[in-house]
Amino acid sequence: MPIALFVHAQPNDAGGRRSAARGGVVFGAVHFALLLYWIAVALVWYTPLAIPAYVATVAVLSALAGLFAWMLHRAVHDVRAPLWIALPVAWTATEWARAHFPDALAFPWLGLGTSLTGYPRVVGFAELVGARGVGFWIAVVNGLVATLWIGRRSGRPRFRIVVGLLVVLTVPPAWGMWRAETLEVHQVARVAVVQPDIPEHLKLDTQAAEDSTRASLESLLPTLPPSSVDLVTLPEVLFPGTYPEAPGLHEAMEHLEAEARALETPLLFGGLGYSTDDAGRSVPYNSAFLMTPQGLSAFRYDKRRLVPGIERVPFLPDRWIGALGSFGGYGVGRGWPLARVGGVAFGVLICYESSYAELSRRLRLEGADVLVNLTNDAWYGREPWYARTAALWQHPAHLVMRAIENRVGIVRAANTGISLFVDPVGRVYGATELFRPEISSAAVFSSEGPTWYNRLGDVVGNGAAFAALTLVLLGPLAQHRIAPDARSRPARDLDPSDYAD
């Protein structure tokens, strides 16, 4: 709300628009610097490039926040759109934009709607409008409160705004609470998550990573009774190297096959796959595999959304990227394969693919009964309390929205935690402790029928992007219909009713 009040108060001229944009940049710099501080704090342990990466990320997102403020100023002053409409449209459009940056630059991390995932019953209406719809709702509430604040000096009753605020505040959460009480869910499988807890400095050493991972699995897996679960899930890139050609990996795969036979249960795990491109070069992929008691199955999912700079360097031709090797040269996955175990279809999300709502939606439409997130969050902190960052909690928060949007159960297997389960209502259960070797098993639930979000997709995000573009294009035309003295007058002197109704 403060940034909305600031933008509203700027004069209705070119100088006012520039001032609004500058304010938006400052707001964005503070917001994203605090939200993403972990990029520098956690990753600097591994590379000094974490500092410029952090600065560049905050700079780009701050510029986008400046664009948000500029659009909001134009919508409110030139088009005369009510603040409570202009604010959610401009905010949601910019969130949509950063989720649709080209190549590997897209970064939908922790949008406004995801901030309320601690209250899944309140945001249950996400199954209708998605996470961006929840963010739109939060912005509408802020816009209505800001409108009341602006109009407080007029002395005129703001009955319609007050009534509108009460309706907006109560109806969507009430629907979510009704949904939580009435949604029919059923158990589809029993799944175990294995948390080996291998620190990242060991993961970066091939031999140390393999030895410590095998030791952890040999300690944890025997505690699980044979045939007690339908599937065992293990984290992203369980063993280093490129499967199956990397030296030593054949022995590791034999070990996993032996474990699958002993447990009489398939193991879903992360590893590095490869394919050969048209030029005959070997291209690595961040992949997921299914090891059955009979051996490695044909299932393989290749990660589609890659970490910028680390897994893929944006905009470089594929032949250049291939010359970089594994660093920045990972291939982009294709297709939507599902791991089928005992009649249950499991869709896989690797690492921060959990923040991309469209991936979960597509997997659900392809027939996934359960979504499984394989990840390695050891990058985000170390065991001492002072070395842990907010990313360790920010990352799994996205899965609550994915569960609600798709009425689907979710399993998360994280190398150092937090591993957990989410039911279709969005309730988290069976969560493990951070930085502790642990195995946890629980029933996994699903629900019948596609949601409105499944059917229609991100209608709110797409609609906001289109509306914002329309407002920007209409701005210059609207200026010609406003008297010159009104354009030069500060917005704070205008009648608040122009923006309220």
Radius of gyration: 25 Å
Second rung of CATH, namely the architecture of the largest domain: 4-Layer Sandwich
**Secondary-structure element order, N to C:** HHHHHHHEHHEHEEEHEEHEHEEEEHHHH
Q: How many domains? A: 2
Spatial order of the strands forming the largest sheet: 5-4-3-2-1-12
Shape: globular
CATH superfamily of the largest domain: Carbon-nitrogen hydrolase
* Low-pLDDT segments: 485-501
Biggest pleated-sheet summary: 6 strands, mixed
- Alpha-beta classification: alpha/beta
Mean pLDDT: 89
User: End-to-end span in angstroms?
Assistant: 18 Å
Q: Into which percentage range does the β-strand content fall?
A: 15-25%
Quickly count the helices.
17
CATH class of the largest domain: Alpha Beta
Please give a quick description of this structure:
This protein has 17 helices and twelve strands.
Structure description:
The chain is α/β, with parallel strands linked by helices. The chain has two domains: 2-182 and 455-500, no CATH class; 186-276 and 287-307 and 332-447, 4-Layer Sandwich (Nitrilase/N-carbamoyl-D-aminoacid amidohydrolase), CATH 3.60.110. It is built from 17 helices and twelve strands. The strands form two sheets. It has a six-stranded mixed sheet with strand order 5-4-3-2-1-12. The chain has a six-stranded mixed sheet with strand order 6-7-8-9-10-11, with helices on one face. Strand 2 (231-233), helix 10 and strand 3 form a beta-alpha-beta unit. Helix 5 packs across helix 6, helix 6 (126-150) runs antiparallel to helix 7 and helix 12 packs parallel to helix 13.
